Amino acid sequence: MSSAHLTQVRKWFFQSPPAEWAIQQLRELLIGALRLGPVPQHVAFVMDGNRRYARNHQIETVEGHNLGFEALARILEVCYKSGVKVVTIYAFSIENFKRSRYEVDALMDMAKVKLSQLAQHGDLLDRYGASIRILGQRELVKPDVLDAIDRAVALTSGNDRAILNVCFPYTSRDEITTAIRGTVADYSKPFKPALKRPFSETHITRNIRSRQLSIVSEEPLPLRSTSDTASSVDADADDSASASTTPNPSSSTSVTNKNPFEDNSNPPDFEPSKSAVSNYPDPETITSETLSEHMFTAGTPPLDLLVRTSGVERLSDFMLWQCHQDTSIVFLECLWPEFDLWQFLPVLVEWQWQRKKAREREAISVKAQKRGVKLQ
Amino acid sequence: MVGLREVSAFHHDVLPDGRPLTVQEREDILRPYLPRPPRTSSLAKAPASTARRTSTKPHRRKPMRDFLKNQLHVLVYTAIHTLFSIYVRLRRACHAIIDRVFAILYYHHRTPELIKKDVKGLSRLPQHLSVILDFNEDGHNGSGLEDLVNDVCEIAAWSASAGIPILSIYERTGVLKNYIPQTHRSIFRTFQAYFGRHKPTLSLRAPHLPSFSPPSSPSAGSTPGHLSILLLSADDGRNTLVDLTKTLAEMSQRGKISPADISPELIDAEISESVMGEPDLLILFGPDVELKGYPPWQIRLTEIFHVQDNTSVGYQVFLRALHRFAKAQMRLGR
Q1: Which of B275, B300, B307, B323 to substitute to test the interface with A, most A CBs within 10 Å?
Q2: Which distant-in-sequence residues (6+ apart) come within 8 Å of B88 by Cβ?
Q3: Which residue stretches belong to region Disordered (chain A) (predicted)?
Q4: Is A312 inside a domain boundary?
Q5: Would an 8 Å CB–CB cutoff place A349 in contact with chain B?
Q6: Which of A278, A280, B220, B264 has the fewest Cβ atoms nearer than 10 Å?
């Protein structure tokens, strides 16, 4: 009985105005002090532990998610005040759709409500806000939530001081697949050859043929593209054979029409199809930077720090591509709704300390090298 | 920190007397907690509606106060970092002592039976164990390579004794791939020291290189299992994905596939066949969790284990990792 009374007294004390003011000043002081050292440019959070927190404190799971949202707001405040440029959070995984329908609907509702509330505070966002970006597969989300998302994104798109990436719904493997698909699609677009004269050969031949064959539908156009993809004139036959065996439905209809036109189209096609391969960008120029630029996080600085709460020590399909090199990954035992400056501060300080040590070591080795060069 | 009444009002979007919260009232609740607006934007736009002076008037320069504040920040910063250095050194000393205690308690004595006894109580064992090792290039006379091969032999012996069938060893520079026969011989000798006559069979390979498994492995009598070791390097990480993209781009240019055919299952099948499947447990023997170029695709659901401030490859780290793995729950999104 007395211990319950004591916690009441403590609560009353910490929520009284003087104590509140003092704690607020202390927070400002600590954050201001940390700004002087190296600060991570891009931090990622996995917000894990809402449901466990709700279970431990005997409250509703949805209430746990609400408290999680507040913890997120607190941490964002800390991060942006410390000078972090980009914060990425793992809001919802594609695997989470397997949860109970009630919970998924509740989460979607919460997202919609929070985003529409956000959209009402336009000028406040312009002054302090970060630009919000939503990363993930949009097709899996219901249209009303998509509307709220698009509105919030459009509203904040003008801010350039900081970025908040919300991964919703997101899986890292899906992101890598999309990046690969995007790169392959980019590299499959033929170059338009530079025109020496303002008349394009394809345009002329198309005109002639459309006049000759006015009864045919739009088939000739995809025919031209499939004949352009032939790597050389003599390989045309091979390619038409292989093209007819692909399961791709769109090319099969054009393949059947191809043969009657091939004799007519060969002479004017001779020039472009011979150099058709050089019409495409060379796949050898694809590097990991190309893939990084096609990821959802393109244009952001490299990931410096990844924090996962609730004691789970896995990556769970989050930022696999981005964190595979120098990112410091930190696993914390506390649950997400309890996460605050006091848990995050040691992580930041340790990160700063490690960076300072690394810089000192580099400076020492550079000096040693210079001395070695001078001696020689 | 926010007052209690304001918290509940913000939460439920409703004031204590039942009225719904309007936009302006929400902003008023938030206003004291917002940071000072940055100078450029407050001079450019001057919002006229509110009465609070600090947020509407252009920021008055108070040089003395700013200077004092700055000095205070510098003081606090140096204080924090000094305290932290002391704390880190204490922590390292503590961990080193605990490490030694564990090492003595759980010494394996090169007896597979002891190792088997240690893992008998575990509810599950990883089928595919992965390890990240560091190659110390600054070691004199190639001792870095020797240490690395020693570590590999020890880890292989422990995995074989514990009954883990697949072991993959990641080392960023990939120097071991040039010394596969020698490594195989060293591991063989270590197995002899541990197991005696009934050694488990061993196959050592690296992706894109042929498997090395000399025909002299004994087949008579009880075969206490087989251990296949996979050597990985930084090339098997992002670069493999880049190579796969190049191949897919070429195929798409020739019209053999279309970009819409590329799915996670296709990439998964290709990568697991060419490099490796997904490991269940990844053990890091360094002081913090840094992946150093480990293949990104496979590590999706891998349990990652490390011991803070640990610097060397030790049996107690291995054992603690297995214990931790047995306790971990896989929820897979649910």
Answers
A1: B300
A2: A350, A353
A3: 215-285
A4: yes
A5: yes
A6: B220
Instruction: Please give the ipTM for the structure prediction.
Output: 0.79
pLDDT in tens, A219-228: 444 444 444 4
> How many domains is chain A partitioned into structurally?
1
**Order of strands across the sheet with B166-171?**
B201-205, B226-232, B166-171, B128-133, B281-284, B303-306
What pLDDT, on the 0 to 100 scale, is given for residue B282? 92
State the pLDDT at residue A308: 92
For A151, the domain range is: 39-170+302-358
CA distance A211 to chain B (A): 29
Domain boundaries, chain B: 1-35, 63-105, 112-237+275-327
Nearest of B199, B249, B250 to residue B222 by alpha carbon: B199
What mean pLDDT comes out for the span A15-34? 86
Share of chain B above pLDDT 90, in %: 10
Question: Are B17 and A111 within 8 A, CB to CB?
Answer: no
Residue at A228 is within a domain:
no
Q: What is the per-residue pLDDT for A256?
A: 41
Digit-coded pLDDT (tens) for B199-212: 788 888 888 777 77
Report the distance separating Cα B322 and Cα A219, nearest Å.
62
Model pLDDT, residue B219:
44
Q: Which residue has better confidence, B93 or A95?
A: B93
Residue A48 bears catalytic tag: yes
Q: Does the beta carbon of A162 lie under 8 angstroms from any beta carbon of chain B?
A: no
Mean pLDDT of B98-107: 83
First and final CA of chain B: distance in angstroms?
33
Question: Residue B299 corresponds to which tokens in the numbers above?
Answer: 């590590």
Kindly report the backbone phi and psi dihedral angles of residue A306, in degrees, each rounded to the nearest multiple of 5, phi listed first.
Answer: -125, 125
- pLDDT tens digits, B271-307: 888 888 889 999 998 888 888 888 888 888 889 998 8
As to burial, measured by CB atoms within 10 angstroms (0-12 exposed, 13-18 middle, 19+ buried), residue B327 is exposed
Q: How far apart (Å, rounded) are the C-alpha atoms in residues A303 and A293?
A: 14
The average pLDDT across B29-55 equals 45
Mean pLDDT value of segment B192-196: 84
DSSP at A94: G
In a domain, A185, yes or no: no
Round to whole Å and give the CA distance between A205 and A201. 6
pLDDT the model gives residue A36: 87
The closest alpha carbon to A240, from A217, A221, A261, belongs to A261
**Using CA of residue B7, residue B8, residue B10, residue B15, what is the dihedral sign?**
negative
Residues 6+ apart with CB under 8 A from A257: A219, A223
Residue A51 lies in a domain: yes
| Nearest residue of A to residue B41, measured between CA atoms | A127
Helices and strands of chain A, counted as H and E runs? 15, 6
pLDDT digits (tens, 9 = 90+) for B123-144: 888 899 999 988 877 766 667 7
- pLDDT(B173) > 70: yes
CATH node for B112-237+275-327: 3.40.1180.10
State how far the Cα of A79 lies from the Cα of A76, in Å rounded to an integer.
Answer: 5
Q: Is the pLDDT of residue A15 over 80?
A: no
At A78, which CATH number? 3.40.1180.10
Q: Are B129 and B305 in contact (CB under 8 A)?
A: no
Structure tokens at B273: 């066949």
- The CA distance from A224 to the nearest CA of chain B, in Å, is 13
A286 and chain B in contact, CB less than 8 A: yes
The two structure tokens encoding residue B156: 């292989």
Q: Which residues contact B55 (CB under 8 A, 6 or more apart)?
A: B31, B34, B36, B37, B42, B47
